[in-house]
Amino acid sequence: MQSLETWQHDYIISNGIRLHYVTQGEGPLMLMLHGFPEFWYSWRKQIPEFAQDYKVVALDLRGYNDSEKPTDQSAYVMSEFIKDIEGVIRGLGYDRCVLVGHDWGGAIAWNFAYAHPELVEKLIILNLPHPAKFAEGLRTPQQLLRSSYIFFFQIPWLPELLVQASGYQIVTAALTGMAVNKSAFSDADLAAYKEAAAKPGALTAMINYYRNPFQQGIVNQEWGVLDVPTLMIWGENDTALGKELTYGTEAYVRDFQIRYIPDCSHWVQQERPDLVNQYIREYLAS
Question: Which position among 114, 168, 210, 279 bears the catalytic label?
């Protein structure tokens, strides 16, 4: 994929499992966490950009693509994801990082920053609300409707069968179907996403993230004020997560900035990499 790039593939053992990542550059650590149904590749437009100043590490989360895929559903809970990220940072020889997360990666990044603020120099979240705001949203009819697929994912086996029966077309339909700019995903990009989801054990692992909602503390956890400086970037045309979920985030983050990107979907860093990269650069320089 994109052979012109000088990024490298590598593996690290963290929290007892083998995680795959792509890395480029030297310097302070910038760790990137992707969402569903993606893998490290969703950061392809960011890796070379920030490798000019950072050691960029784009992780495959546990269960995804070339990372190890524990078979127990209980392996896909927030406490384990947090240990994975801590092990990666320390295992790479760092004591802090710039942590960047989108979608599920954003949920993990929020939770990680609360659990280990000392390991996060700056937090950058793309299209995933603060956990307290998401919990509020799930009490409204409009967000419940947007999140209805989560309830479907609670059913054993059936979601996997439907995705496989479509030849994994549902994976790529989720990307292009939600996108405002459909041309952001080339045929090669979509093939890469399908190939990653089709790896043995990957699909069940990916869906298992949604199958432990009450163990994730999504609904009833108390959230204090986060001391880690945080930038949120939000594609305004997100059909899965309403823009209203961003309102009031500053009540939970002491040093908070938000940049909205109009005419852009949930897949913000792939649809508008120019603006996303610019906003991240400006934030890191400030």
Answer: 210
Strand order in the sheet with 256-261: 8-14, 17-24, 55-59, 29-33, 97-102, 120-126, 230-235, 256-261
Residue 29: closest CA among 106, 122, 105, 112 = 122
pLDDT recorded at residue 150: 87
How do beta strands 55-59 and 29-33 pair? parallel
Q: Write down the pTM of the prediction.
A: 0.96
Cβ–Cβ under 8 Å, residues 119 and 95: yes
pLDDT of residue 22: 98
Give residue 46's pLDDT: 98
- Scanning the structure block, which residue is given the tokens 């499992």? 17
Q: What pLDDT does residue 3 have? A: 45
Q: Among this protein's residues, is 20 annotated catalytic?
A: no
What is the per-residue pLDDT for 2? 44
pLDDT for 149 equals 87
The predicted pLDDT at position 169 comes to 94
200-219 b/e (C-beta count within 10 Å ≥ 16 → b): eebbbbbbbbbbbbeebbbe
- Count the Cβ atoms, other than its own, within 10 Å of residue 255: 13
Question: What pLDDT score does 280 carry?
Answer: 98
Is 210 known to be catalytic? yes
Cβ-contact 210, 68 below 8 angstroms: no
Under-70 pLDDT residues of the chain = 1-4, 214-220
Q: Are 261 and 235 in contact (CB under 8 A)?
A: yes
Indicate which residue of 60, 103, 189, 238 is catalytic. Answer: 103
Catalytic residue, chosen from 193, 238, 266, 279, is 266
**255 noted as active-site residue:** no
275/237 Cα distance (integer angstroms): 15
Report the candidate in 53, 114, 46, 130 with the shortest Cα–Cα distance to residue 82: 114
